[in-house]
């Protein structure tokens, strides 16, 4: 009797596990497209905050360049997004990780215009202290807007630092490590864009002159 009870319970548990797995798989299949669409919409919103529609006529999410791990502080491969008017790249949005935030790595995107000036900076993910280091988030303060229009010539490379370190950028009261990390990462993105300018700002394909596909249908 005991053996039969154990076998029956084991069978029921097995059936329950199979049903649960099928339900989870079914839910994933039903929602993955909606989740992917929502993620794409969120990404596009962040990009458009830096390079608005009137500055480009392409879809930046579909015009990308792979950035391998090890560059720009990245641990995983990411994509740079290109904003174009016609064939010409007007700006590029680079994924950057500042590894030296107060509470860990800070993920951000840095927009760089063709002339080497900053189009915009946005922090995407951080674990900085609420009320102090979290002021790097535009939802908490407008501090990141201080990068707009700056370049490696304004200020000079040596002054791309917080004021406490003799630089040109404000730090936060009671918090220096976080803004220092973001300033350094933004300067690194500008230096990367300058070094890779030819690759990042290369002209796109001339779609207007692409040959039409051959008509293989019977007449």
From TrEMBL:
Residues 101-193 form the FMN-binding domain. HAMAP family: RsxG_RnfG. It is a single-pass membrane protein. Keywords: Cell inner membrane, Cell membrane, Electron transport, Flavoprotein, FMN, Membrane, Phosphoprotein, Translocase, Transmembrane, Transmembrane helix, Transport. Belongs to the RnfG family. It comes from Parahaliea maris. The keyword Ribosomal protein does not apply. The complex is composed of six subunits: RnfA, RnfB, RnfC, RnfD, RnfE and RnfG. The chain crosses the membrane at residues 12-31. Residues 200-219 are annotated as: Disordered. Its EC number is 7.-.-.-. The modification FMN phosphoryl threonine is found at residue 176. Its cofactor is FMN. The keyword Translocase applies. The lineage of its organism: Bacteria, Pseudomonadati, Pseudomonadota, Gammaproteobacteria, Cellvibrionales. This is Ion-translocating oxidoreductase complex subunit G. GO terms for cellular component: plasma membrane. It is an enzyme of class 7 (translocase). One of its GO terms (molecular function) is FMN binding. It is found in: Cell inner membrane. Part of a membrane-bound complex that couples electron transfer with translocation of ions across the membrane. It comes from the Bacteria. GO terms for biological process: electron transport chain. InterPro entries: FMN-bd, Ion_transpt_RnfG/RsxG.
